[in-house]
Amino acid sequence: MIFLASSSPCDAKLHPFVYNLTSSYTDQRNEVTMVFTSAVMFILATLFFTLNLFSRLSVLSAILNPSVRLFLSTSLSLFLPVMSYLFSEAKNEGSALAAISPNSSSYSQLGTELSLRARTILMWMLLVELLRKKVEAILVNAGVQWHSGTIDRASRIAWLGYLVFYNLSSTGKKAIYGTLWVLAAAKLLQRVSINELLKRSFAYGKNAELLSSYMAQMLQEKDQQAGNGNAQDEGAELLKKCKYAVMGEEELEMKPGPEGYRLELKKPSTVDTDTNTDSTILTVGDIWRLAEKDKDGVLQEDPSLKRLCLSFALYKLLRRRFEDLPITQEETSNCHSLIFRGLREELLQGTEVVLSTQRFDEERKEELKGMVVAVAVFEVFDEEIQFLCEYYHSVVPVVLSNPFFFLANYILFPIVVWAFCLLTFILCGNGDVRYAYHSIITDNYLISIGMMKIVGCLLGRIIQSPEALFTTVDLAITMLLLLTFLYEEVWEFLVFILSNWLMVSLVCEYTTKSRWRDSRILSGLIRRILWVRSKISHRNLCFNQFSMIGFGGLSPMMLPKKAVPMEVKKSIMKYLVAQINDGHAHAAPLSNGWSTLQSEKHRQSQYRSQLSLACESKSVAEVILIWHIATSLLGRKCPLQNKTSMGAHRQVAVTLSGYCTYLVASYPELLPDNKDGTTHVYKEMQEQLKNALGGCWRYHLSLPGTRYDKLVEISKEQEETTMVQRGAKLGDLLLEMAQKQEDVWELLADLWTELMVYVAPSGGELHVKAHKEALAQGGEFITVLWALCTHTGITRPAIAPWEAQRHHALEP
């Protein structure tokens, strides 16, 4: 053996360490198994480290990608039994080594203790158990699944405790491994406590049922006040009088009844900057009134904080849909007024004040106001969806973010844990602290020799000695797992401190307690957290783009997300404001684009009847794919030569076309049609494209230009039986309209906007479940629209408008 043949001082230090660690490799019976185990562990450790470091540098998120979570959970499910077997093999080999060489001065001392290879495997098992909680959601549904998972993890912890305290005899080794075991056991108790707290608390697990009772009573009282002759509020006054609960509803006096809880609604004190206002419940109106009075406060400096609290209140209300509790028509009507008359008008007024100091013409001012309003409103609902994502899929206790939990979880809990670690350290030394401390140094090679010295010696011999290479790999695995654990602890702390949950909690404390507003330290703390949040991360509303033609069948799940353009947000908001009249009636029936073609704006087009035929289908997926083919063909064959107002319309049409097609391909369950029916339409379109382009290979490998040229040829055919032929002919019609200088891109932008709004509202339980499951991916753009529609009562008509028109024409 090259390594052991050397006689340098470095080799003398490493001789027992390397031999004991690599003795399993030199045994021909287990060499393949041990090498394979180290290779797999190295890949797993590298994956843990890479995913935790590089996937989170730009996004502060408390959720983990479900695909990654599934892969890691599956990998870790087999980890403990496999590593327990390898631990047993390494332990037996260490005993055999001691029996073979009982008089060897080099190994006689090693033979009385668990072998270094076995201890390394045991260290991996402890570190992986500490990392396992990073792939498990904090809040899970109560029931057999949660309890079985807790029992399974408790059994793993108990087994590891047995391996540590039964197999290790030296004080120093037992102290180090015992400390890691105490950390793992404490993390388990922490997670169980958090889950039980969330499940049983009226502020979290039971909050949905409580909010249903609160909203019913609150709206009933409001109706009674309106019946007493109170004038209807307008604009910002709606927000100042909004009684949506932000925090504190769990403190209300409640009495269970046959229809829910009967609450004793205490009138919240008027928020005042000069008095302490510790009211029972904090509402959206309290925050808005304080923002108006607190001229030099943080709410005036950063108006987005008010909207963040509104998002939090809406998140609580929307949770009821995920937990099978209804949202009444009275509530949707109230929320509709709050959003479209209250929030929108306040944003318009604020933007008008800012723009009054700028030199813009009136048209440009109106455009900018529309942009600002649309971005702010979508930000409210995007933040709401983020709250939902983190509530149902968080891997860190971010849901409990508040000053008290910070004190308990990040100050008091570590103190208690380290006290138990110190107790373990003392017990391992039989009460002799000095002996235990010296044993840690003398009983562990890495500490007694020095990590850097060992690494330096090993790196110098990797090429000449396989034993040095194997030892280096094993050390690298241990260090990667340890660094990943330390990184995760720091990251969890940062996510907690910079989370929206803590910010809402701090704003609520700031609103209800005058001493917070008077304290320069506390208000300065909020300002500094806001500054750090603005520097580290900013969440953008994103969606995927997919083209059935341009990507040649590439999986849509592999496509990167892109930010939703401001023009898209503005177009959707403009449509909602123009079409929805006070939350009760539509100016035109919501449809899959058909109503847009019948509107006064586009009625004069000589092509209206031909275009309308492409929308007269019961299958939303079919309409999307046909118009997607036509829009893509127009965008390819008739691009805009310069940036005009049509450029914004083109961006709206093209991006919404790509996103709707992505939904058909990847999330058919989020669309209004039956999931299997949508999938069938998508696969049928794929087959038709393959046939039209000359086979599977040409469909996947041909250049985009070739595909579009083929579609142009198809558009000249007389037949119009397949979706591809209908889409190609529709695209040819749009090209003809563009050549006659018609506003074809504006028409397409309006059509795709209406179609996007049309597919968003869904009240069926299967669709609600699908949106809940989509939250695991961080939420989709259509989920944000679904939340907006659910809150404001926007629904699809029961009968398609063209069918209603035909039925009306047949009536005598």
UniProtKB/TrEMBL annotation:
Q: Which Pfam families match?
A: DUF4220 (PF13968), DUF594 (PF04578)
- Name the InterPro entries for this protein: DUF4220 (IPR025315), DUF594 (IPR007658)
Domain DUF4220, first and last residues per copy: 146-549
State whether keyword Transmembrane helix applies. yes
Residue spans crossing the bilayer? 32-55, 404-425, 445-463, 468-487
Keywords, A to Z, come to: Membrane, Transmembrane, Transmembrane helix
Q: Which PANTHER family match?
A: OS01G0798800 PROTEIN-RELATED (PTHR31325)
Protein name, per record: DUF4220 domain-containing protein
